[in-house]
Amino acid sequence: MRYLPTFILIILLSQFSFGQSKIDSLKQDLNQSEEKEKAYIYFLLAKEVFYKDAYLLKSYSKKADSLAEKYQIDSIRVNVLNFLSYAATNTGRLNDAITYNKKALDISESKHLKKENISSHFFKGYILYATGQSDSSINVLNAAYKEALLSKELKIQLQCLNTIAANHLNQGQYKEALEKFTSAYQLADSLKLYDKLINLSLNIGTTFLYNEELDKAIEYFEKVIAQSDTSSITLAYASALNNMGSCYSRMAKHEKALEYFEKALPAYLKINNSLLIAQVYTNLGQSHFFLNNSELASKHLQSAIQLNRNNKSINQLIVNLLLIARLDISQKKFIQAKYHLDEALELTNKFNINYNKADLYQTYSLYYTNREQFKKALEYKEKELNIKDSIFDITRQQQISELQTKFETKQKLIENESLRKDIALNKLQIEKQNQNNNYLILLTFIVIILILILLNRARLKKKSHQIIQDQKSELEILNKTKDKFFSIIAHDLRSPFNALIGLSSLLQSSYDNLSDEVRKDYITDLNKASENAYGLLDNLLTWSMIQQGSIVIQRKEENISTLINECILPHQATAKLKHISIEYSETEEPIVSIDRFSIKTVILNLINNAIKFSHEGGIINISTENKGSKTIVSISDHGIGMSQEQIDQLFKIDQGYTTLGTNKEKGTGLGLILCHEFIQKNKGQIWVESTEKMGSTFKFSLNNMQV
């Protein structure tokens, strides 16, 4: 009975490293990144654990998929959906694997993502390979390989060649398998993917194992084990242990084989790959069977059968059924043995899996011999021998030997050629260095003289040109500053003076009809409006000085709640005229790093706008929210709102956008431009969220003080 060697399909994806330091670094980046950036970081984390932990791969991929879907990052989403299909395949969730892969195919096709679409077809072929559907897998992979050739996607070509070869090997088609492995090896070598050559070496060793050239197979597997870093278990290392056990088992050294299988099991368990865990259980069961440990053999084989049924891994399931049938025969459980044999034969024919047919016929022959049905036993023995003769003929033995010779010869040629190149290169470098020394001093003098002449001419020309440009730029800046200054004065002083005029007119017309208390209230409001107008004028004059370079923005520690309350007070009078209430939710007292006067101007402008565009009797809500290193200030009204077209015109000086308030209040449209400029100078951002007829919310971010 053959043991199950493992194929190492590590070249599924481009480049993966498994350093814990890199994973830790990516986790730190998560804490410092915006939500959109986290999609890419989770994608990188998934790549890091791809061959180490199927459950972590699933976790990271799901988080990356959720964020990629939210922010419409289609390329990342396709890749992580394929990661999820791989994880599902290797943890026995075939329906999930197919669903994920179909989503990846649909998105890559609809979004015209050529590379991702080819990769998705490769994963479809991989799912078919992993579940024993070799014919279908080869068809899908051949189509993907052709597309990868046309698109010059070399790494996907490598993936397809490797998995096509694995399918051929499962079918007992050694010549075809060797051709594909050879092509894959040559492609990896040409791309200088030296880390992939070790995985292909494992597959070549597995080919020798399948063809019973055990000494050659062991040589390759020992090389893989020696080159592996045991501090970080990889799929290649675990598979080499498993395949070494298979070699010693075929040599009938079952105790030694058992040692390697028992080392391979915890390695596969750490990787969380249920397909390969099932293989090791199968091999452990067979080893105990040959060592007459029937109870342990049955226990391991039942575990393997359960996993392979869940995984829908047909090739492994056939091997399990043959082994359990042999165990049943040895214990005279002939009804159970015949049931298992018939199921194995049905699966072999249905899925065209020829690799196990010789073992199947051998086990049938054993069954009929023990039932003393010798004619039937002889019939199946002849079938077994015919299969072996057709597979292990001299031509194939020669092809495999030739393949090994090609690899060894190529490696020696590469080493010799590299040595010759190094010697020739050193000689050439010495000759060039001697020659260069002869001309270097002369060339240096010539170059220095030319550079000095050119620099002198360029300096004179540049100096005169720069004087003109500086004067022109200065004039442009002064003109723009002047225009902005007068426009803002015209716009922002109008609102408080409207309040002054309105209240004074009301006092004038209704003075005799008002009580002393009401008069005092109006006079108080007039005083506040006057102070507001004066403060605003003072801020505008300060801003004009900043534009001229006379004053720089100086950010200091401020309590934003205190500043907001100061800004609400002067607007109460204007708000009262429209029966509007201003509500501020003080949930905390964030300390921010700002220039007090410029941010106060921003808040005053935004509250003024909220009053302007609110309906009579409305409410204006002001709130602050702490988000990490930022504080977000929100000023909301429930007024007329804006369309997307109107939102797009805000904060742009060249648009000159303005509109009337709910009481026909007029403005220049430059108040928001002033806000935008001040927020930028304070290292923050400003934006708006609005719905027509529902109101608007202006938000801006400020940097918190570092503790």
Corresponding CATH superfamily of the domain at 553-703: Histidine kinase-like ATPase, C-terminal domain
Query: What is the rounded Rg?
Result: 39 Å
- How far the N terminus sits from the C terminus, by CA atoms, comes to 70 Å
Q: What portion of the residues fall into strands of 2 or more residues? A: 5-15%
Predict the CATH topology of the domain at 553-703: Heat Shock Protein 90
CATH architecture term of the domain at 553-703:
2-Layer Sandwich
How many strands, which pairing sense, and closed or not: the largest β-sheet? 5 strands, mixed
| Helix and strand composition category | alpha+beta
User: What's the oligomerization state?
Assistant: single chain
Shape type: elongated
- Uncertain spans, ≥5 residues at pLDDT below 50? 10-18
Report the CATH C-level class of the domain at 553-703. Alpha Beta
| Number of β-strand runs | 7
- Approximate helicity band: over 70%
The strands making up the biggest β-sheet line up spatially as: 2-4-5-7-6
**Average residue pLDDT:** 82
Helix tally equals 27
Detailed description of the structure:
It contains 27 helices and 7 strands. The chain has 707 residues and is α+β, with helices and mostly antiparallel strands. Among the domains are: 193-260, Serine Threonine Protein Phosphatase 5, Tetratricopeptide repeat; 273-372, Serine Threonine Protein Phosphatase 5, Tetratricopeptide repeat (Alpha Horseshoe); 553-703, Heat Shock Protein 90 (2-Layer Sandwich). A 5-stranded mixed β-sheet has the order 2-4-5-7-6. The radius of gyration is 39 Å and the shape is elongated. The chain starts with 19 loop residues before the first helix and ends with a strand. Mean pLDDT is 82; it is low at 10-18.
